[in-house]
């Protein structure tokens, strides 16, 4: 067994730099733990000649051509960190075809088009590491594939987008509206110039697609994940939640039922004493419920140069150890063997039972409350509690909040559609699902 393993990095952005920093700063630590040296032979980036970076100065080969990495026979592991769909998929597939092991943090590609990549890795008997694709530096992929392998994982709850969590935290703490907090988040670098993927739940949906595929021995297509973001959450909703002893979080939720699975992303009201309600600012947490171990939570920094770089390097080390033992693909790509793959239909969001928070905007006049309650009753929706402002003026448009008992989502949709078309509800009703009450 050779004493050094060569790696090549494609993409030298935030995560690429963090990966190189971890590899170089902790080179001796890694060697002490593994018995070999991880040597960064080549870094490829289209703008490599424009980058001034102390860590990059330690790399001998710098190139603008990714194929200087992919086609180099001396490179054992290719690290894809450019993100996006194309040419990232081509780079990964060509690396696999060249019998090279691959590490990526590209959650969007794996969620949308991962099946081709997973299959190619299996057919070519190479390893595919993607720990950095979910939860940044928090170990969750390997936990599902190996540490929980003896368990039947039943449920997953995750706060897995730091931008959305930061915004909801500041809306609560500073009593600011979404748009104002978003501007603050962008100025601090916590939100992109175009924050759509983060605040509308797309990034979170990519991640829960990957987690639920591993947990439930299936492949969950991204397009089957229900996605709803936080841009319509108002400060008044945060305040009402607080009055109810709750918080609003953007949750990724996956559950295995007898004949189907639920995979969804949406704002969720949870009790303040729930452990996930304690996850604040840009931090992430993933909560697993399994049959034998019961509940485990994994918490930490879910993004950033060094946390994600740390996860990428952990994959490199795992692959290198398997190479040393001459047992590549020791663990199946998704943690389960191909011949035992199960396919579960994803349950329609309107068929899922949940409690609901409903905020209506209605004119303050006698009978309105009872009319709303009457329509809810018509659709078999039972009211748990109701809140209305204590001080109002006749004719004023006021928020009326109803908390329901568990009911089918379709019942709520039908009731809200009817109420929003009535003459006593003025604006579109805000509907937020509730867990744990």
UniProtKB/TrEMBL annotation:
Entry annotation: catalytic residues: 207
PROSITE patterns, from UniProt? ACT, HOMOSER_DHGENASE
Q: In which pathway does it act?
A: Amino-acid biosynthesis; L-methionine biosynthesis via de novo pathway; L-homoserine from L-aspartate: step 3/3; Amino-acid biosynthesis; L-threonine biosynthesis; L-threonine from L-aspartate: step 3/5
Q: Which residues make up the binding site for NADPH?
A: 107
- GO MF term set: homoserine dehydrogenase activity; NADP binding
Q: Which stretches make up the ACT domain?
A: 357-433
Give the reactions, separated by semicolons, that this protein catalyses: L-homoserine + NADP(+) = L-aspartate 4-semialdehyde + NADPH + H(+)
Binding annotation for L-homoserine = 192
Keyword tags: Amino-acid biosynthesis, Methionine biosynthesis, NADP, Oxidoreductase, Threonine biosynthesis
Q: Which GO terms describe its biological process?
A: methionine biosynthetic process; threonine biosynthetic process
Q: Which PANTHER family does this UniProt record tie to the protein? A: HOMOSERINE DEHYDROGENASE
Which NCBIfam families does its entry note?
Answer: PRK06349.1
Q: What is this protein called?
A: Homoserine dehydrogenase
Q: Which organism is it from?
A: Flexistipes sinusarabici (strain ATCC 49648 / DSM 4947 / MAS 10)
């Amino acid at each position: 067994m050779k004493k050094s393993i060569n790696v090549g990095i494609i993409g030298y952005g935030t995560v690429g730099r963090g990966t190189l920093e971890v590899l170089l700063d902790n080179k001796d630590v890694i060697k002490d733990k593994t018995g070999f040296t991880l040597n960064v032979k080549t870094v490829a980036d289209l703008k490599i000649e424009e980058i001034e970076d102390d860590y990059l100065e330690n790399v001998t080969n710098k190139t603008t051509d990714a194929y200087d990495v992919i086609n180099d026979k001396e490179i054992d592991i290719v690290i894809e960190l450019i993100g996006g769909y194309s040419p990232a998929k081509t780079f990964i597939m060509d690396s696999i075809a060249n019998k090279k092991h691959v590490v990526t943090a590209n959650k969007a590609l794996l969620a949308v088009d991962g099946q081709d990549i997973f299959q190619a890795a299996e057919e070519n008997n190479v390893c595919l590491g993607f720990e950095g694709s979910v939860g940044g530096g928090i170990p969750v992929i390997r936990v599902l594939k190996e540490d929980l392998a003896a368990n039947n994982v039943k449920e997953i709850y995750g706060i897995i987008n730091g931008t959305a969590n930061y915004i909801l935290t500041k809306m609560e703490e500073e009593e600011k509206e979404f748009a104002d907090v978003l501007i603050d988040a962008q100025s601090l670098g916590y939100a992109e110039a175009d924050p759509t993927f983060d605040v509308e739940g797309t990034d979170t949906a990519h991640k829960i697609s990957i987690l639920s595929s591993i947990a439930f021995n299936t492949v969950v297509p991204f397009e089957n994940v229900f996605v709803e973001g936080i841009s319509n959450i108002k400060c008044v909703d945060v305040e009402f939640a607080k009055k109810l002893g709750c918080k609003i979080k953007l949750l990724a939720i996956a559950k295995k039922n007898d004949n189907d699975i639920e995979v969804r992303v949406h704002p969720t009201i949870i009790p303040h004493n729930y452990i996930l309600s304690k996850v604040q600012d840009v931090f992430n947490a993933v909560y697993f419920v399994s049959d034998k171990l019961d509940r485990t939570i994994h918490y930490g920094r879910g993004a950033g140069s060094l946390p994600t770089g740390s996860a990428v390097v952990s994959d490199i080390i795992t692959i290198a150890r398997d190479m040393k033992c001459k047992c590549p693909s020791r663990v199946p790509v998704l943690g389960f063997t191909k011949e035992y793959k199960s396919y579960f239909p994803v349950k329609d969001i309107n068929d899922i039972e949940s409690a609901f928070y409903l905020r209506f905007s209605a004119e303050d006049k006698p009978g309105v409350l009872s009319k709303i309650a009457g329509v809810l009753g018509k659709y078999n929706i039972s009211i748990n509690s109701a809140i209305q402002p204590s001080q109002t003026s006749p004719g004023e448009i006021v928020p009326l909040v109803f908390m329901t008992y568990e009911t089918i989502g379709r019942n709520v949709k039908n009731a809200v559609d009817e109420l929003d078309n009535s003459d006593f509800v003025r604006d579109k009703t805000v509907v937020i699902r509730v867990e744990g009450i």
